[in-house]
Amino acid sequence: xxxxxxxxxxxxxxxxxxxxxxxxxxxxxxxxxxxxxxxxxxxxxxxxxxxxxxxxxxxxxxxxxxxxxxxxxxxxxxxxxxxxxxxxxxxxxxxxxxxxxxxxxxxxxxxxxxxxxxxxxxxxxxxxxxxxxxxxxxxxxxxxxxxxxxxxxxxxxxxxxxxxxxxxxxxxxxxxxxxxxxxxxxxxxxxxxxxxxxxxxxxxxxxxxxxxxxxxxxxxxxxxxxxxxxxxxxxxxxxxxxxxxxxxxxxxxxxxxxxxxxxxxxxxxxxxxxxxxxxxxxxxxxxxxxxxxxxxxxxxxxxxx
Length: 305
What we know:
By secondary structure, this protein is α/β, with parallel strands linked by helices. The chain has helices spanning 5-17, 20-27, 31-45, 61-84, 102-119, 135-140, 184-188, 203-210, 227-234, 242-251, 281-294; strands at residues 50-53, 56-59, 95-100, 124-129, 146-149, 158-165, 167-172, 192-195, 217-221, 238-241, 254-257, 266-272.
């Protein structure tokens, strides 16, 4: 019995998502299409494969047996295609996809896009909004080619530090103290705009908490780009990476001050799938991102040597 590769991919997605709806979203298909594919699989394999349970779709014993077989087969096929396909950056029309937070788009997209345009003028680049919990799955299944984040991700993805930064306090100029470093008392008196951890910068609150300092959050948002206007209108502070603080201060009447505790440097890491073959477009794109960020001037300098 032969089986369409797309059927295998759909089976794997349903198995991991435990939901036809979520599988359809991950595959960029409609729910009826995925439901129809599942019906074909059930007919061909002679098994219901999934039954409804309290946590969603539960795999049958047969589905559990088939999962690893299908997973290995699809991974081997993908690796063989990537390693053997002729890839010419100068002529490719491929769309590369990189997962970035909105702050990542501001800092990293310009040098990456400039290098891509120079080396692969017919290629396209898509920035995928950061959803931290989904990144390992997206990488493993080829939904994105790379991700840049300061968070440590699970899932076995390849991780490589590409640049460094540290945190500072960003304030409206009119309410900032003259000295360069805030005292504990000054810091405690401030109200803050904080960024939701899913945006990729949740660790600063944990680090401050370890030092006995907490942020009095007046507003929580999902995007760094709204900080300048919100802070100026509401007289609020924020804690942001130095790189973005310096950019905001050049464009808005804002200043940055040192935190009352030492802010250790953190790395921004490039994540790619650990199964990347020795050649192919994904490997080429990873190297392009590395080189683009290596040449980029940053607050603390590159992490790559």
